[in-house]
From TrEMBL:
<keyword id="KW-0472">Membrane</keyword>
<feature type="transmembrane region" description="Helical">
    <location>
        <begin position="284"/>
        <end position="307"/>
    </location>
</feature>
<keyword id="KW-1133">Transmembrane helix</keyword>
<dbReference type="Pfam" id="PF00211">
    <property type="entry name" value="Guanylate_cyc"/>
</dbReference>
<dbReference type="Pfam" id="PF00672">
    <property type="entry name" value="HAMP"/>
</dbReference>
<dbReference type="InterPro" id="IPR029787">
    <property type="entry name" value="Nucleotide_cyclase"/>
</dbReference>
<feature type="transmembrane region" description="Helical">
    <location>
        <begin position="12"/>
        <end position="32"/>
    </location>
</feature>
<keyword id="KW-0812">Transmembrane</keyword>
<dbReference type="GO" id="GO:0016020">
    <property type="term" value="C:membrane"/>
</dbReference>
<dbReference type="InterPro" id="IPR050697">
    <property type="entry name" value="Adenylyl/Guanylyl_Cyclase_3/4"/>
</dbReference>
<dbReference type="InterPro" id="IPR003660">
    <property type="entry name" value="HAMP_dom"/>
</dbReference>
<dbReference type="GO" id="GO:0004016">
    <property type="term" value="F:adenylate cyclase activity"/>
</dbReference>
<protein>
    <submittedName>
        <fullName>HAMP domain-containing protein</fullName>
    </submittedName>
</protein>
<dbReference type="GO" id="GO:0006171">
    <property type="term" value="P:cAMP biosynthetic process"/>
</dbReference>
<feature type="domain" description="Guanylate cyclase">
    <location>
        <begin position="397"/>
        <end position="528"/>
    </location>
</feature>
<dbReference type="InterPro" id="IPR001054">
    <property type="entry name" value="A/G_cyclase"/>
</dbReference>
<dbReference type="GO" id="GO:0035556">
    <property type="term" value="P:intracellular signal transduction"/>
</dbReference>
Length: 581
């Protein structure tokens, strides 16, 4: 046994030592050194870039706040008198029009009494003369001239901040403004770092003030939402350099830098995915991969030189592998050298036999899986009987379903959004159809046709079809809730009917489909077309078959397109999901 093991190692060592010493070591050393030095250079450039972008973003946020305070400064230029000042009210209303971020203004005289209050959402007040001198905003403005309050959340969603400003003389009073920070989104959204990098703003306690994704800001002080942003800020503070690495809210590895915003104690953070930041390094790795390919070609040349000493066995192996590669799995390679080559020929012969069996089985299963559930296809393959696919007359439940409002949605939405919705839709329904061992016969756009009880019969087809339809509705309604949060107005309806139909495979030699033909198919399609969002409509045959087992409620006689008389239509009851609107 030991001698045989050493014999098998001989040919392997010849190839391994030549290829390893001639190709692998030099290329690997070159690739590693290039990647290391490239990483250090790119890291330095990244720190410089993010530092500049952070300072630039901070300047833009500071400019946004300065623009508001400069406008407020015009309201504290002149001293107050004892009489009402209509001019100040006009100036305040004009400021609300010019500065959309300001939600309300309060003007106090030199004694800290309210003389004017204007608001976008509340009632205006004039000359209320309430004493507000003890308020924190007024005291802060008198002490520092310009005072920024803490960020609060209106109805736990939209961020607001109070800004108070006093004039150069006590007699001109104080102006207090409530600022809607949601409008900083326009400033933050315009900040781009590379192709996918962005900026966001945190206040002192670590709450999100601004982010390109406004939905994250509108979640208010939700700890789960804020945790990733607070974590990346702490990483930057602890980092010895100006740039730190971490993971953003989506779990993507990023490089980030930060800069403070004077006054409100904010921090502007800019981040860029590491996959983009180190793109040049990846390019270098691709170059190294190209060198490895070239080295592989060189290794093939060396292998050819060694193989010349074993001409006949190698020729037989080459001819045999070509035949096997061409699909001639019945071919066998005959080599009797007693060494690794003979063992290799035996392995090829065994592989050819296994490939022949595997190819036949895969082709059979692939053909069946085009229109059968995977478990049904496996069953037909194991039994070796595909007579169930031949044309016959049987009772089936035809199930049709499609999305409501999909046509106008697809006309308005971008192609990527349409394909994303369809992908989620088909993925959810496909799993359900497979689990219930139903047969998907066709789908077009957002519509599907499914058969139950064909080609493989089930014990209670109507009951199984109703349960499948209910699970389809529940699953798709969960998707619809998410789609509606993204602004897509889409619904989902299902129709099913029970009755005899002609089922079987149709087509031509290179393309077959399994389908059903009969009035039950047309009726199910018409019921589906009549079903509104969240509805499962069934005919009388289905209702009678599941009576007492599932809740099915009559909806009265309805005219059905293609039928001379009105038909009694039933609605399948199921637990409603929360409204996603």
């Amino acid at each position: 046994m030991i001698g045989q093991h050493l014999q098998f190692r001989g040919l392997f060592l010849k190839y391994f030592l030549v290829l390893f010493l001639a190709v692998v070591i030099p290329l690997a050393a070159n690739g590693l050194s290039e990647a290391w030095f490239g990483y250090r250079d790119q890291r330095t450039r990244l720190e410089q870039l993010l530092g500049v972008e952070a300072r630039s973003a901070g300047a833009k946020i500071q400019g946004f706040l300065d623009g508001i305070t400069n406008q407020l400064g015009w309201l504290v230029q002149l001293p107050w008198t004892g009489e009402p000042d209509e001019r100040r009210q006009i100036d305040a209303l004009r400021l609300l029009r010019q500065v959309p971020a300001v939600a309300s203004l309060t003007l106090l005289d030199g004694n800290g009494r309210e003389r004017l209050y204007v608001s976008r959402i509340g009632l205006n007040r004039t000359e209320s003369r309430m004493d507000r001198s003890a308020e924190v905003a007024v005291a802060g403005a008198r002490m520092n001239r310009l005072w920024y309050g803490k960020v609060g959340y209106y109805r736990d969603s939209e961020p607001y901040m109070t800004i108070a400003l006093t004039g150069n003389r006590p007699s001109v009073g104080v102006v207090v403004a409530e600022v809607n920070l949601k409008l900083i989104w326009d400033v933050v959204a315009a900040i781009k770092i590379g192709r996918t990098g962005h900026a966001f703003v945190l206040d002192g306690p670590g709450r999100l003030v601004a982010h390109p994704d406004i939905n994250l800001v509108l979640r208010g002080a939700d700890e789960a939402t804020l945790a990733p942003f607070q974590r990346i800020r702490e990483e930057i503070r602890r980092a010895p350099a100006d740039v730190a690495t971490g993971r953003d809210a989506g779990g993507i590895a990023v490089a980030a830098a930060a800069t403070p915003v004077a006054g409100p104690d904010w921090t502007v953070v800019v981040e860029q995915p590491l996959s983009e930041a180190f793109g040049p390094i990846y390019a270098a790795l691709w170059r190294t991969f190209g060198l490895l390919l070239a080295g592989g070609a060189f290794a093939c040349l060396l292998a050819f030189i060694l193989a010349r000493r074993m001409t006949e066995p190698i020729r037989l192996l080459e001819d045999g592998t070509e035949r096997i590669g061409a699909g001639q799995f019945g071919h066998r390679i005959e080599i009797r050298t007693g060494d690794e080559l003979e063992r290799l020929a035996d392995s090829f012969n065994a592989m050819a036999a296994e490939l022949a069996v595997s190819q036949e089985r895969q082709e059979r299963i692939a053909k069946l899986k085009r229109f059968l559930a995977p478990q049904v296809a496996e069953l037909v393959d194991r039994t070796g009987d595909d007579d169930v696919l031949e044309g016959r007359r049987t009772e089936v439940v035809a199930v049709f379903c499609d999305l409501r409002g999909f046509t106008p949605f697809s006309a308005r939405a971008a192609p990527e959004e349409v394909m994303s919705v369809l992908s989620e839709y088909y993925d959810a329904l496909g799993r359900i159809i497979t689990r219930y061992e139903a047969t998907l016969t066709s789908f077009s756009g957002d519509g599907l046709m499914v058969l139950v009880n064909a080609p493989v019969p089930v014990a209670e087809p109507a009951l199984q079809a109703v349960d499948m339809a209910v699970e389809m509705q529940l699953s798709v309604q969960t998707l619809i809730a998410g789609w509606r949060r993204r602004g897509y107005r889409i619904g989902f309806g299902v129709g099913l009917a029970l009755g005899p139909a002609t089922v079987g495979r149709i087509g031509y030699e290179s393309r077959f489909d399994y389908t059903a033909i009969g009035s039950v198919v047309n009726l199910a399609a018409r019921l589906c077309a009549s079903a509104a969002d969240r509805e499962i409509l069934a005919d009388g045959a289905v209702a009678r078959a599941v009576d007492g087992k599932r809740a099915v409620n009559p909806m009265g006689m309805r005219p059905i397109k293609g039928y001379d008389e009105e038909l009694l239509v039933y609605r399948v009851a199921f637990a409603d999901q929360p409204d996603a609107a």
